[in-house]
Design a protein that fits this description.
171 residues; alpha+beta; Aminopeptidase; seven-stranded mixed sheet; 5 helices; 9 strands; globular
Length: 171
């Protein structure tokens, strides 16, 4: 496992749009993320979502976002306890895929979210994204229901619970 102190997270800004578009055009990102609508000032300012540029030893290489699961009406994670967060991410630099960075950066962000009192962290990979599902399982995520179609596409809902939140009921 890589030392998490080698990873830094800074808020994505308008100055990062070209980098994000470059990463989103990479085949390994498009396979699961899709090109979607490019980010703009309004999306970057959305208070429901924290968008991050992740660097390893000072070099930007990945994108991550965490969001309030109760920020959208009828969100597929709306039944989770208050304060729960959802996460999504990708490694933009194809040379760093498969080297343990995904587990390390997700683990670092999970710790920050749990430290900030999130009782549950949710994620929703495509059910055929075996690599992502394996990483999530390694980090303590478990499926939370069967695959389902959402407004963002087909997902496998998965959750990880904060150890102190193990006694909280899922709504």
């Amino acid at each position: 496992m890589m030392a998490t102190n080698h990873y830094s997270f800074r808020r994505a800004t308008l100055a990062d749009l070209d980098l994000l578009m470059e990463w989103q055009l990479k085949p390994h990102v498009r396979a699961w993320w899709g090109s979607g609508e490019p980010y703009d000032e309004e999306k970057l300012a959305d208070p429901r979502v924290a968008r991050w540029i992740v660097s390893f030893m000072g070099r930007p290489f990945a994108f991550m976002q965490d969001y309030a699961v109760h920020g959208w009406e009828n969100h597929h994670f709306a039944n989770l306890p208050k304060g729960s967060r959802g996460i999504d991410q990708y490694i933009g630099d194809p040379g760093l895929v498969g080297a343990g960075h995904g587990s390390a950066l997700i683990g670092a962000r999970m710790q920050a979210l749990f430290d900030a009192q999130a009782p549950v962290i949710a994620t929703d990979p495509h059910p055929e994204n075996e690599r992502a599902i394996a990483v999530y399982r390694k980090l303590g995520f478990e499926p939370f229901g069967p695959p389902k179609e959402t407004q963002w596409g087909l997902i496998l809902p998965m959750i990880a619970r904060c150890k102190v939140a193990d006694d909280l009921p899922l709504l």
